[in-house]
Amino acid sequence: MAAARRCTLTILTLLMLVSQALASQVSHHRFHSEALERDYPYTLYLPDGYHDTGLDYPVVYLLHGSFGSDRDWVTRGALKEIADRMIRQGRIPPAVIVMPGSQSWWVDGHNEPARTAFLEDLLPHVEDVWRVVPKREWRGIAGLSAGGYGTINFALERPELFAAAAALSPASYYPLPPANSTAREHAAFLTPDNRFDADLWQRLNYTAHLDSYLGQDYVVPLYLSAGDRDVFDAVGHARRLQAALEDHQPGQVPLEVLSGGHTWRVWRASIGPALSFMFRFLQPPLEEPQGGR
Prior knowledge:
The chain is of the alpha/beta class. Helices cover about 35% and strands about 20% of the residues. About 5% of the residues have low confidence.
């Protein structure tokens, strides 16, 4: 009887080790950014099998909110658990998810050139170091609140880079942020004498990119979501954006209104549908060609 128990325990231990060996991985990284003149942090999700399959993967850049960090989506957003479950259920293909950190609302603001660092430093770094397909059809972008603001700006300004996007409770306020928005106290938008720079906001907001986006042929399908009790009226602002884009991309700007406020409860509930939407347009993993990484 004791021998049987020992055998059972040995088998369970082996199964646990195998499960851990095949599990997805979350890790934290830094590299030197020329634009920022400092290290650029990012958190990385690698799907189960990344190190063994020899595949090149689609990549989603997932942006945090105001005064947040690259670790928020894992520590508060349950990103690993949600992505693991969706991949296991076949709702999305295995993918690499990059969660970068920004101190400037993803714009070249008064405090640092976060937009330039994202486009010119982070994207090339990721595509050089990790096995992702460096083409538009395999590249998506998403984010919450200020990260939704950044997502919309990047998608409309550089539609040739992204095949799909998702903005959760996006802080893309028009014409200006509401009085209670942290944008009004963030260093990205504060002048040297500590005043909110309304002119800079308007120059950097998505409306500055809208005409050029609507005048070209690329379409970036965009999933929008917000809580029905959002204190910044994210639903109203999202509806304005949806109306502006609908003629350019009919049926490809869905807005999901959830029960809740401007909170992680809403963002955890909507990241799954956001990923499902995006992967209707992003391509699945590719077999790595000979001579690749």
